[in-house]
Amino acid sequence: MPKPYTFKPGSKIKISNFETRVEKTEYDKKSAAEKIHANAIVMADHARRLYAENKRSILLLLQGMDTAGKDGTIRTVMRGMNPRSCQVYSFKQPSEEERDHDFLWRVHKVAPRKGNIGIFNRSHYEDVLVVRVHDMVPRKTWQQRYQQINDFERLLSESGTIILKCYLHISREEQRERLQARIDEPQSNWKFNQADLAERKFWDDYQQAYQDALIACNTQHAPWYIIPSDRKWYRNLLVSELMRHTLQQLDPHYPTVTDDLSQIVVE
Amino acid sequence: MPKPYTFKPGSKIKISNFETRVEKTEYDKKSAAEKIHANAIVMADHARRLYAENKRSILLLLQGMDTAGKDGTIRTVMRGMNPRSCQVYSFKQPSEEERDHDFLWRVHKVAPRKGNIGIFNRSHYEDVLVVRVHDMVPRKTWQQRYQQINDFERLLSESGTIILKCYLHISREEQRERLQARIDEPQSNWKFNQADLAERKFWDDYQQAYQDALIACNTQHAPWYIIPSDRKWYRNLLVSELMRHTLQQLDPHYPTVTDDLSQIVVE
Questions:
Q1: Where are the domains of chain A?
Q2: pLDDT single digits (tens) B75-96
Q3: Is the pTM above the cut of 0.90?
Q4: Which of A101, A109, A139, A163 to mutate to test the interface with B (most CBs of B within 10 A)?
């Protein structure tokens, strides 16, 4: 099965060394869609057991440049899940109340409850990405955050949360095409934002910020997965596989009922 | 001025070596009350500046055996503060939703907002105290929590929160008298709880748990203050002094208005 790129905690990487498009794969668009559908059925069953067991949780965190496909991945991979125990949080610009607290405050509040799967569309990593690129806090502040993030993620991990962090990796050319498509296709116009063009000018700064964040926060308890994302179906397949595999590894069980129910008759 | 006991981060202490009642002091009940009143006026003024400045916050955390006087301290020391920017959180038994998250989840949610003073009546330390004494989680779990607490408190500290942790230190005999008073005095009956007598049987276990927590979590960024609390007025005086001193050290300022307002006329 195709897998995301991973790398050893503590080791240095160059983000530009990772492919954004993997050519060699036994899958194509159609067979990937079938596999994602099959995975969704397995995932729904296991998510139900996870909920009944009520001991552990999963946090799937998605980061990536504009147009990398965070929304599309969630839509394609997670449909089929019971929303009762699967919540998506999209982190936008922080509110005034959120800015009046440490940067992890709003994130911790929505950490997944036991038995649940939490999905972060963007996350606390924005506080070492956009915040860094645009000098929104002093250098010392965002540098401290790597350790703060690692400590926070370790707390969640030690408390029973499995953390999966996916970096959706696209090329600069692929982003150009996708932004252009948002302009050219009327039904995609609503997704287009002038600000995206301004952000695109900071491409190299963002790549550097991503690289540093991936290196600094790639831990045993919360590893990064680099997802080649120039092809949407391949990106979706990788994330779907990761989620299915994680749920199967967890192997959650329905709680065993210790009382003997055999004599109970409901009248 | 009388001061709480403090000790170096990393150093070991024996809690039984600290006095619960300090005899030598220039203060008495009456002059202490006057000083506390004078402090309250200074504190209210500085709290107002802290609020206007909107950059930093204070967290006053109170722990102590039953009857040590957490409620009484807050009532006596903090009256005079504007409740707009001063909030007390009393941590009770966690709810089902709270138990379905890591133990710091409910604490982080109520961490003080910039410009505010947060007061914790009990706190996350209960998760290495009562939880440990009654074996409510495996040993490994509560042992991990010391580091998790230190990391969490460092996050708050690095984000602008001044953390003051007060251990209200009473003797076993003093607790006996106070519990007896709750039984003997009709207007205090409502405070009496049969469970307190059961808890009292675990006195030594609690003292050990407090000692370990004080040693493990006495950091530069969040030090413990040991408050001799057998005499209520002395206890209150120490906490009042600590709070006044902290606010004066912070020396918060009203934001300077850069616009020239001199020509503005309100019509």
A1: 15-250
A2: 999 999 999 999 999 999 999 9
A3: yes
A4: A101
